[in-house]
Amino acid sequence: MAWTEGSWFAPIPRDSAQLAACRPSRDQFPALLDSIDQLRLQGINNYISLPQIIVCGDQSSSKSSVLEAISGVSFPVKSNLCTRFPTELVLRRTPHTSAGVSIVPHESRPEAERKALLTFREELLVERAKAEMGITAYGRAFAKDIIRIEVTGPDQPHLTIVDLPGLIHSETKNQTTSDVELIQDVVQSYMREPRCIVLPVVSARNDFAHQIVLKLARTADPSGTRTLGVITDTLIPGGGSEEGSWSLATRDAEQAEFFGSGVWKTLPLSSLGISKLRSRLSKVLLGQIAAKLPGLVHEIDQKFQSYRDQLEKLGKPRAGPQEQRIYLFHLSGSFQALVKASVGGNYNDPFFLDAKTESGYQQRIRAVVQNLNEDFASEMSLRGHYFQVIDPESEAVPSDSHDVVCINRDDFISQIEHLMHRTLGCELPGTFNPMIVAELFLQQCRPWGPIARRHLVVAQTVDESTAKMLQYEVFQPAMNGVLQEMRDKTTELLTPH
């Protein structure tokens, strides 16, 4: 097994001096790594990208063998099987050896299923964990839940690695198109995390250009700043499962002999073998955590403050009907007080903001209505008459309104005389029918209706800061009713004229 940081993989810090300059002390590393793991167990990774190492590769690229060699724990690897779920391998150096398995439910799981999966905690029984997640040979093929394997011992490094399901090139008899898409979605979602170190495992038996994992890794990390490649040299074709030939006990010896011969002797020893990879991964993870820690703490503080503000806005819990009634009572009281202050012109409450701003002005109802009334009066004065009589000898400028008809004084008098002749009644000679006044007034005030209706539409205001549910379910229907009543009243007042 060899690993590389060359060309595309190059930007990861290379020597111990670079790593030491950006990392906390070695004594602090276990506690720091445990803190990151605890954040992940609490689901913080669903909201904030956390530093971690992910192992990904094509199906049967010996990913499980890599994890097995790193941890010393035997995984259920068979020639016809592959990883069916993300596996989080937690390694810690302790005086005593122990191993256990738990399940971290995916956020999409219903609450009841999440609680059931969280209760699962056994010794190293991977097959039973698969059954708990609903993965069977003839049923569900893959799961987004994470199986968490914790291994401690005096020879273990301080390391946390996530092994992802192997990428599938095309559907098969036992793996559908949806399985192919699901696995790619899972792998890409992990790769896109900006604080995630990608460990693509490629098999020396397969064509380098045809391995999907490299394309996905380049897409997620074009510069290669957080990518560390691993090349596995599996058995020759037809050799069977690796476990059938090399046991865990003899693997290191076989590996040392293999890399001590042939072209492998020309490569740096620091890039060959599982022990060097194990040490290197621990250093890289420490360097990544140290480099990203300030930004991570800052982002957590920002998220914490944001969610705390949201919780404060929600107020105290309102679990029962009585608490809900009390909350609505206080809400309606506060709303009534604000409306009363706004209508009365008392703008001392911070709600009214700065009068110099548009939002602050719009919340001051009395000022808005009075200004609208003044605008209404000005519009009635300028455009509230149908005829504008122009004296030929006057220098007055005719109105520019399209609703006003400009007419010469002599022509207007002629129209009135013509109307008087056509409305003669029982009146004495030399007098006129008084109904002509009403008819002339009705004609002259013809623009009043449209102007009044436009004024009512402008004057209808709804507080935008009020919750949408209250606005659409309570206030909007009520305001529409008031508006309709005002329209009806306007029509009633104008009808006699």
TrEMBL record:
Gene Ontology molecular function, alphabetical: GTP binding; GTPase activity; microtubule binding
Among the GO biological process terms of this entry, one is: intracellular distribution of mitochondria
**Coiled coil residues, start to end:** none
Dynamin-type G domain span: 47-312
**Pfam name, any one:** Dynamin_M
Tell me the superkingdom of the source. Eukaryota
Q: Record's Gene Ontology CC terms?
A: membrane; microtubule; mitochondrion
Supply the alphabetized keyword list. GTP-binding, Nucleotide-binding
Q: What is this protein called?
A: Dynamin-type G domain-containing protein
